[in-house]
Automatic annotation (TrEMBL), chain A:
Name used for this protein in its record: NAD-dependent epimerase/dehydratase domain-containing protein
Pfam (any one): Epimerase
GO molecular function: UDP-glucose 4-epimerase activity
Sequence ranges assigned to domain NAD-dependent epimerase/dehydratase in this UniProt record: 61-278
UniProtKB/TrEMBL annotation, chain B:
An example Gene Ontology biological process: monosaccharide metabolic process
One Gene Ontology CC term in the entry: cytosol
SUPFAM superfamilies: NAD(P)-binding Rossmann-fold domains
UniProt GO molecular function: UDP-glucose 4-epimerase activity
Entry protein name: NAD-dependent epimerase/dehydratase domain-containing protein
Domain NAD-dependent epimerase/dehydratase, first and last residues per copy: 84-294
PANTHER family reported in the protein's UniProt record: CHLOROPLAST STEM-LOOP BINDING PROTEIN OF 41 KDA A, CHLOROPLASTIC, UDP-GLUCOSE 4-EPIMERASE
Coiled-coil residues: none
Length: 383, 400
């Protein structure tokens, strides 16, 4: 039964890639089944090997963040599952916004149910008092960066059932042996050491935590110019400058698959005090990614220009949105232990992103080809 | 007590031993019946006997977790190539099967007196015999004659690269009633991709000889499986792998690597291939109808391999990159690995057989280096003509 429902989900997805994101009639998250029978059918959507989700009862859930990217998709899933969801944000971004292609009634239903706790998570006193006053069963920490941000949350919620943390595969120590696995050495000096320190703190506090380490996340509403960077150049008909060989292997994970993974660890005893890499189940070369973006947007095959970054001075600007190295992680542990399998293939997922975002004329960062022009020799100095 | 799980990298697997009476403790005397309970107790009898006699000579045994296999004892035929990178697979597989209590015959293609038999692993085939196995020689076209009167439960073809070479074996196996046919294929048959890794089910090169074989055996046998390896390290290897790097590192020579050195590859310890094959023999219904990437579960870059070899040797390494086009036709001989991403993952084996990889390159290479020095290869006089050509073309100085 579980197997066939997963198959059904995939079937629906593949035939309706650009329809509503939301699980209305065409479910990308087994949404329909949840809406009609939350109490009994939750297990149906667990693929083989996943532990049945413990409770089908509604939980009081706090999402730190939730209004920018991952949290937007995650919070919708949580609301759909019948949980009471509060988003803790400063309110800089709108608390809710309709997803591209989302039906009005679906959006309104979501909007009417979502709660907002306005505040600055770095105001630790406020965090303590407001969270203690509310009490929450589960915390999804989507935007935490430093360990000290977590302490007040844990202090305020002594009966917390689960702390689910969005960490990063950036914590892994660079290695000649890849993919990165959850057991591998981490880099205490990395840019993401705050994430590592947070994981260590969660472990030391004995709280029931689950830490998710995504690689590069992509999908509609991405504020990190991952696919957007390629789409800008493809749209402008410009060559795509790629550092060094273009053989560097990276990995992208669709935001919806990430949101699904976050749901799957909720209330899952197997996920207690565990760390999971979550991303797509294939890797991709830089060159391959450029071509995949072209396919996704229906662009002709792009011209790729390879350059030696050491020969240029880009000032403070980034000439390419990815780390110039191999960077990919095995997602086997989540698959084997929790039955978490990404739905989106790369071109499929990039097509979803293009159709729902860039292809509609929306993007987060305006095109900036100044570093490209330096590389292409069109200008000698970054103005 | 059957399966060898090599999580311990400490000692060389399958060091030569001199068991006085092992042949007389022939497994045939224990093959009272085919029920699993008897065979597992038979295995435990035979192994405990062996461990009594030989534990001091084979410390590595006690370091391995040896699992009782619920599988019955099988009669396995390994048709083994007489040369090349895959030769060592049959050697390890034979020994693992024997240690697990199975009956093994190795048919090496060609002539026992051939010069090819003067290289490993053939020089160590006595270990197969000492383990209770049989070793015979012959040509696959005459397989019926060579193995006249013999029947097997399982036949592994670790020889042919195309249907011409495998068909006689497959047809004979079928006609003589073998229940399970296994084939050592190649991950080289995958079409190049920009989205690694190669996963079972991915598009293969239609004209690949191995593809033709896989198709034929899938049509001929009710129970078949195909195994696609990449590169291997391990004692008894017939073809150089890590040695190529050691040769240069130990002589203080630069290591010339084509392209960027970022190319991913998969270099497995051959014990991983052997354990995967053994799992298939012991879980035939699970294995049936599957293609398995017969590799470890980590990629290493070409540069990374050079660095790991140097680390294993405790020596520095100078890596030099070159454009293979600059040396023309020598490019193929210049470097033992494909100049492209060539990385398959063993997903089917993990999903279907519950197999786990044990390759640990940093540790395994230390062991390989120890043997490299032990056999005196570090002192051997060698010429590096193509390397010199490459370095000349780069105008890089050669260390004395």
């Amino acid at each position: 039964m579980a197997g066939s429902s997963v198959a059904a989900v995939q079937h629906n997805f593949k035939h309706y890639p650009s329809l509503s994101l939301l699980p209305s009639s065409h479910s990308t998250f087994c949404g329909t089944k949840f809406i009609t029978s939350i109490q009994y059918k939750r297990k149906v959507c667990q693929p083989k090997g996943a532990l049945n989700v413990m409770a089908s009862s509604s939980k009081k859930i706090l999402v730190m963040g939730g209004t920018r990217f991952i949290g937007i998709f995650l919070s919708r899933l949580l609301v759909e599952e019948g949980h009471q969801v509060t988003l803790f944000t400063r309110g800089k971004a709108p608390v809710t916004q309709p997803l591209p292609g989302e039906a009005d009634d679906a959006y309104n239903a979501f909007k009417s149910k979502i709660l907002h706790l306005k505040g600055d998570r770095k105001d630790y006193d406020f965090v303590r008092t407001s969270l203690a006053a509310e009490g929450f069963d589960v915390v999804y920490d989507i935007n935490g960066r430093e360990a000290e941000e977590v302490e007040p949350i844990l202090d305020a919620l002594p009966n917390l059932e689960q702390y689910i943390y969005c960490s990063s595969a950036g914590v892994y120590l660079k290695s000649d042996l890849l993919p990165h696995r959850e057991v591998d050495a981490v880099d205490p000096k990395s840019r993401h050491k705050g994430k590592l320190e947070t994981e260590a703190l969660l472990e030391s506090k004995g709280v029931n935590y689950t830490s998710i380490r995504p690689v590069y996340i992509y999908g509609p509403l991405n504020y990190n110019p991952v696919e957007e960077w390629f789409f800008h150049r493809l749209k402008a008909g410009r060559p795509i400058p790629i550092p060094n060989s273009g053989l560097q292997v990276t990995q992208l994970g669709h935001v919806k698959d990430l949101a699904t993974a976050f749901i799957k660890v909720l209330g899952n005893a197997k996920a207690s005090k565990q760390v999971y890499n979550i991303s797509g189940d294939r890797y991709v070369t830089f060159d391959g990614l450029a071509r995949a973006c072209a396919k996704a947007g229906g662009f002709p095959e792009p011209e790729l220009i390879h350059y030696n970054p050491k020969e240029f001075d880009f000032g403070k600007k980034k000439a390419f949105p990815f780390r110039d190295q191999h960077f990919f992680a095995s997602v086997e542990k989540a698959k084997e232990e929790l039955g978490i399998v990404p739905e989106y293939g790369l071109v499929e997922g990039l097509t979803d992103s293009y159709n729902l975002d860039f292809g509609r004329g929306t993007f987060r960062k305006a095109a900036d080809f100044s570093t490209d022009d330096i590389i292409l020799g069109k200008s000698l100095v970054l103005s | 007590m059957a399966t060898l799980l090599s999580s311990s990298p400490s000692s060389l697997l399958f060091t030569t031993l001199s068991p006085p009476s092992l042949p007389s403790l022939s497994l045939s005397s224990l093959s009272l019946s085919s029920t699993s309970s008897i065979s597992s107790s038979a295995s435990s009898i035979s192994l405990s006997h062996r461990s009594l006699s030989f534990s001091s000579k084979r410390p590595s045994y006690s370091a391995f977790a040896v699992k009782a296999s619920a599988a019955e004892k099988k009669k396995v035929l390994i048709v083994n190539t007489n040369s090349g990178g895959h030769a060592v697979i049959g050697f390890y597989f034979a020994k693992e099967l024997l240690a697990s209590g199975h009956d093994v015959t190795v048919l090496t293609v060609g002539d026992e007196a051939s010069d090819k038999m003067k290289k490993p692993p053939f020089t160590r085939f006595s270990e197969i015999v000492e383990g209770g196995g049989k070793t015979v020689w012959g040509n696959v076209d005459a397989i019926g004659t060579v193995l006249e009167g013999l029947t097997f439960d399982v036949v592994l073809d670790n020889n042919g690269k195309d249907l011409d070479a495998v068909k006689p074996v497959a047809d004979w196996a079928k006609s003589s009633g073998a229940g399970q046919f296994l084939f050592i294929s190649s991950a080289g048959m995958y079409k190049a991709t920009e989205e690694p890794p190669h996963v079972e089910g991915d598009t293969v090169k239609a004209d690949a000889g191995h593809a033709g074989v896989e198709k034929y055996i899938s049509e001929s046998f009710g129970n078949w499986a195909s195994f696609r390896p990449q590169y291997m390290i391990g004692s008894g290897n017939n073809k150089d792998c890590e040695e190529w790097f050691f040769d240069r590192i130990v002589r203080g020579r630069p290591v010339p690597i084509p392209g960027s050195g970022m190319q991913l590859t998969n270099i497995s310890h051959v014990r991983d291939l052997s354990s995967m094959l053994t799992k298939a023999v012991e879980n035939p219904s699970a294995a049936s109808g599957n293609v398995f990437n017969c590799v470890s579960d980590r990629a290493v870059t070409l540069d990374g391999m050079a660095k790991l070899c140097a680390k294993a040797a405790g020596l520095p390494v100078e890596i030099v990159h070159y454009d293979p086009k600059s040396i023309g036709s020598d490019a193929k001989k210049a470097f033992p690995f494909r100049n492209m991403h060539f990385y398959a993952e063993p997903r089917a084996a993990k999903d279907v057989l519950g197999w786990k990889s044990s390759t640990n390159l940093p540790e395994d290479l230390k062991e390989r280096y120890e043997e490299y020095v032990k056999i005196g290869r570090d002192k051997k006089t060698m010429k590096f003509d193509i390397d010199d050509k490459i370095l000349e073309s780069l105008k890089a100085p050669v260390a004395a």
